[in-house]
Amino acid sequence: MALRIERIVLRRIRMPLVHFFETSFGRTYERQMVLVEAVADGVSGWGEVTAGENPFYNEEWTESAWWILRDYVAPRLIGEPLDGPESVAPRTEHIRGHRMARGGAEAAVWDLAARQAGEPLWKTIGGGARAEIPCGVSIGIQDSVEELFEKIETELAAGYQRIKIKIKPGWDVDVVRRVRERFPNIKLMVDANSAYTLADADHLKKLDDFYLMMIEQPLAHDDIIDHAVLQAKLDTPLCLDECIRSARHAEQAIRLNACGIINIKLGRVGGFLEARRVHDAAQRAGIPVWCGGMLEAGVGRAHNVALATLPNFVLPGDVSASRRYWKRDIILPEVETTPRGSIVVRHEPGFGYSLDMDFIASITEREEAIGSRGR
Length: 375
Ligand code: OSB
Ligand code: MG
What we know:
Bound molecules: 2-succinylbenzoate, magnesium ion
CATH architecture of the largest domain: Alpha-Beta Barrel
Strand content: 15-25%
Number of domains: 2
Strand order of the largest sheet: 5-6-7-8-9-10-11
């Protein structure tokens, strides 16, 4: 179905987190994100850019995404009709990198297509394999192990199906040992966000004692080969996050036995089309996937829920309730979890929630509309 995008509106919003979130690359107290509204025939589709506030997870950040969207992505999408949402990724492929910026616009156009068709986004992207998605939580580095215990207790009491804890040198094997002693039966995993090198292989090998589900991205953000070397030394499956930016990377990682599991993030791979390709490549190889998170507000969170209905998303993801992040979310209702630690998939058109436009207006710091008559 041909889509003529008339206007793209960018909004930069700012939202304080309920609790700071610490990874091996730093602490975040407040998110700043770009919302993308794509308008065609009076219908709006929405996307959220998942880049961080600083170029520390990958090379993108909120401001780089703003300029890439304003100067390169939006002008290519406006006016000249698209064959459909699948055409957004090819149309912006000449832009090297900046997949989170491109992915934010791509997701907005998928949402727009779903709303125009009057169907839920999960259907438009070819999902719908499950009515509820299984949820885990990602718990940041804490000031003490006691605080970490408390956080884990809270999340288990809320029903979450698996616990991921962030690790870094100095907050790893001993912490995991104590968590395992305290919680011998939980589904547990760790995420290092590229804090180690192959020289740490013997140290990381000690994690094999704790029957973790997986170790996520221990080595460099742009490496696949060293992960293959490390995987050969470990019994615990490696899960790749940062270094899988495309289906080609997924295929190469699988071919090299660099991982047993893949974390798929919509923004990191540049949108739904590429996410589906990564999903399909993993599925063909018998590699399970799960949906990662980037501390999203409601729009990104709802897109993640849709993505996680594809069949090979068999492991609990980092997609959890809005209230874990925000005092007030930008969508209505907010994303909630069941006592079983799942999110029930909604059937409303598009990403399934409505936008709280008054709230969005109140937290918008910058807004710019790019239209077919030029800016
Ligand atoms: O590596 O998965 C990650 C948050 C920011 C950047 C990277 C990561 C994360 C998370 C949080 O683990 C997942 C979430 O709760 O949204
Ligand atoms: Mg990760």
